[in-house]
Amino acid sequence: MSSAPSIVVIGGGPRGTGVIERIAANAEELYGDHRLDIHLVDPYPAGGGRIWRPDQSPLLWMNSMAEDVTMFTDETVDLDGPVVAGPALDSWAEDVRAGRVVPSADPDVLAEIHGLAGTDFPSRRLQSAYLRWTYDRALAALPPGITVHEHRTTALAVGGPRGGRQHVRLQDRAEPLPADLVVLTVGHLDAEEEPEQQRLSAFARRHGLVHLPPDFTADSDLDALRPGDPVIVRGFGLAFIDLMVLLTEGRGGRHENGVYLPSGREPVLYVGSRRGVPYHAKIGYGWTGERPAAPAHLDEKWADELLGRPGPLDFRRDVWPAVAKELGHAHYHRLFTAHPERTALAHEVFAEKYAAADPGSPELAGLIAEAVPDPADRLDLDALDRPLEGVRHASPEALQEALRDYITADLTRRHDPAHSEDLAVFVGLLTAYAQLVRLGDIGGWWHGFFSYLASGPPGPRLRQLLALSRAGVVRFLGADLTVETDEEHGLFRATGATVPGAHTEARALVEARLPDPSLRHTASPLLRALRDEGAAVTDTGLLSVDPRDSRVLDRAGRPHPRRFALGPFTTARNSGAFTRPRTGGPAFRQNDAAARAALTFLRDLSCRGRLAS
């Protein structure tokens, strides 16, 4: 009797877990009682993988509330396979408290689960327990003929002919692992240093300085940052928030009643970025009332028309106008339906004229000015993107005060339902992200803008940032930050456009951001080998995949019959492997399509007796 067909899933985090969950959901329909071996390869525990591993600081939080996190499909997901309902994170915690679920978790994590409310921001190690439970539930749902084998190691390369079995070389195994199909779900990538980072690292070595290149903050060598020393931090997103927490509370400081009490072990963080402001706080209230029809402008017809054009797409020219109109549709629908006292035109009249106007046209701008008297109630995406554009302050101290006012105003607005059009724009961003997946590689600006506006830190973290600023532990450098090297004095020097003439010198520089998800600079031997063998890679370094089922494309545009890839390193990247309930979950749709394609392929091969060795 021949051996069972096999799938090797490389990456055991939430994306790999999601693929196995979809295999379990579709197996009865598409695979029957055939045998199948699934080999899951990851050096970190299955379920959470590296980013969501259990052994990390309890100070590191998710940037989503517990009620906004699910790993399960619902009727809003556009998929061909069956919906298999499951609990969102807050409901799962209720099941744990009621004894209906017994998770695999340490006592400290169990205590956190027992105290979790839906509007709390859980720790990442708590999320790890939820993801592990989701993984175990997916295994239990597999039919008897499908078995999962875990390999706690690293995959180094995938080889094999297009028409035959693949071979996955593992770090600690002499013989390669045979596979009829390979699914790459490796998540965020480590990177080799790009030329600019190599130059900065070499400068730091010459002068005995500290340079921490882009990395996962939890894995960075923060011990190299000495108490009291100035540290230039380039980047003001979620990686900065993690850095801020680990270097303050993580070193014994405390927050009490809005005041930070330092331990004396903190460095002084001088932070700036292109925008010069932190990501917007997560919205602190839920949706009520009528929802707009979505997508209103980014529909399949629009995407088909774009994809039918000759030549590459230019995001700003070809895509952004329609995205901006979609976000405006969400904003103004909410404004007219929830806050009509701030409008001056009948909603039906506005909606008809808005739909007919060309994106970015003077007619559209005039309509909005007529219908929404207060400019503060209009959606200005340029101002949201660059709030310090053209702003100048006479001194660094003036900037500190102004930015504290800006952050305070942002916190107030993001927690005030009177501005619920902001929540509508957030939902519109999720809708847009799901639609733009079809377009492939549209460049990095959109993903950064989405994260800045829709995936910012919890409100409590920004309140802590304010306290740290008042305590002098964090200092703001403003927008358009540049960092130079001074060979004569052996120092890094940072300047920003917001305070002309001001500069900051330091012996330490931290790049507070994740490495770019680029195969051109990846440190992964697996993905380097895939790239060098002939897989198609875009100009920005993303792995090209078929948007229909996530099969890897070669340089001629042909999908590989036996290789799939899903995640942020691909042209089908999206906003995350898990999502808010009832928001369509594009990752869930991709997982389902890949699982169905894999099961169908293996069933057909098995039935024809053509499983090659």
Automatic annotation (TrEMBL):
Pfam families with a match to the protein in the record: NAD_binding_9
InterPro entries attached to this UniProt entry: HpyO/CreE_NAD-binding (IPR038732), L-asp_N-monooxygenase_NS-form (IPR052189)
Coiled coil: none
Domain FAD-dependent urate hydroxylase HpyO/Asp monooxygenase CreE-like FAD/NAD(P)-binding: 8-188
Listed name of the protein: FAD-dependent urate hydroxylase HpyO/Asp monooxygenase CreE-like FAD/NAD(P)-binding domain-containing protein
Highest taxon listed in the record's lineage: Bacteria
Signal peptide: none
